[in-house]
Amino acid sequence: MTGTRVSPRSTARSARAFEAARAVIPGGVNSPVRAFRAVGGTPFFVDRGWGSRIRDIDGNTYIDYVLSWGPLILGHAHPEVVEATTRALEMGTSFGAPTVAETELAELITESVPGVEQVRLVSSGTEATMSALRLARAATGRDKIVKFAGCYHGHADLLLVQAGSGVATLGLPDSPGVPAGATADTIVAPFNDVEAVRAIFEEHGEAIAAVIVEPVAGNMGLVPPVDGFLQGLRELTAAHGALLIFDEVMTGFRVSPAGAIGLYGIQPDLVTFGKVVGGGFPLAAYAGRREIMEHVAPSGPMYQAGTLSGNPVATAAGIATLRVLRRPGVWDAIAAQADRLVQGLRRAARDAGIAMQATSVGTMAGMFFLDGPVRSYDDARRSDTGRYARFFTALLDRGVYVAPSQFEALFLSSAHSEADIEETVAAAAGVFRELSDR
Ligand code: KE4
Q1: Are 352 and 433 in contact (CB under 8 A)?
Q2: Coil, strand, or helix at residue 411?
Q3: Which residue, 399, 338, 392, 333, is CA-closest to 365?
Q4: Residues with CB under 6 A from ligand 1
Q5: pTM
Q6: What tens digit of pLDDT does each residue of 242-256 get?
């Protein structure tokens, strides 16, 4: 039974697989955060996933709160997603020509999210944010952009400045290989600090093309916006003719059925999606009002393209996922599990006398080993990452897999049951007691 096992896991096969991988793949992984550098130990290699569970090649089973970093809001291998993608596969894997499924997915997004009239499908969140910023520069004729310390928007050069996620985890202040020119027009402000942004606009006002923000930050750990922050960004950008971009690659369809736009009622000019909209396949999007989106080639001159953009198999997964997610009660039930998890973690930490805070926003959750509020990247970096690493490893031995980094979020799915949550909280309580005995 997962959740209570405390014997160290067998990892021999994963260790061998990791050694073989490191010979031919940098760091043995295809995305840095997977290497467990922030928490230590050997990353497990996955054999398969089903529902809320994944199993590694040593046969260890885990309740999964990473869910491929957010996409699997219906859990692993949901039958309707498997069926839709299998059917699409049998019709052909890629055409490089328009299909009606792409229109259907774009319509599902425009129906679900206020203020979105047109959508361009791409293959990754990085492509979506990079393209949205190019579009903002094209539409305004301006060059400067504003981002927030601790927010991660993918690995495009112009955004790898005080980024969160793997950059935060790896302590890469600014990645080598990014020339000064690529970030010369990127201005970084503290998250949740409207006055800092006001000062930036007072200095650079009419040169700023866009402000890009994770409306609920998920790449420095989970950090919600303080009251007035998003509204302040909306007012400042509107007053200075800059565009406001919500990067909802992670929060889209997760913090509410209409993402942060639906949750907070703030209307950005552009919004990016990823993860959930691809249902676990390589698919993302940038979207917004028609008058802006029509700058995008071939409607307008702003160039962006992609061989596999709108891929029929990925599109089928996205459509199936959004269709299931929009059924009455599905999304609410997932959010209720996130709340149940957070309440249980808070109670267990308190009972063990551990300084830990846990938060949920919709179907996402987060935790910091820290006393006091976390409202910015500076706050987040004061958390006890060493304690988080010990927590992660001990929880893994108990059959529960949370993000292998303090600077990430936890994700729930429609496949997570109340029993899963109870097992998770019981496992965490055991770990908290261990930690408090140290
Ligand atoms: P991708 O290029 O990884 O598909 O998306 C980049 C991206 C953009 N915007 C936000 C808000 C994101 O969270 C991401 C990617 N998220 C990370 C997890 N924090 C992906 C995991 C990884 O890097 O392996």
Answers
A1: yes
A2: strand
A3: 338
A4: 31, 33, 69, 124-126, 129, 152-154, 165-166, 214, 218-219, 247, 249-250, 274, 284, 408
A5: 0.96
A6: 999 999 999 999 999
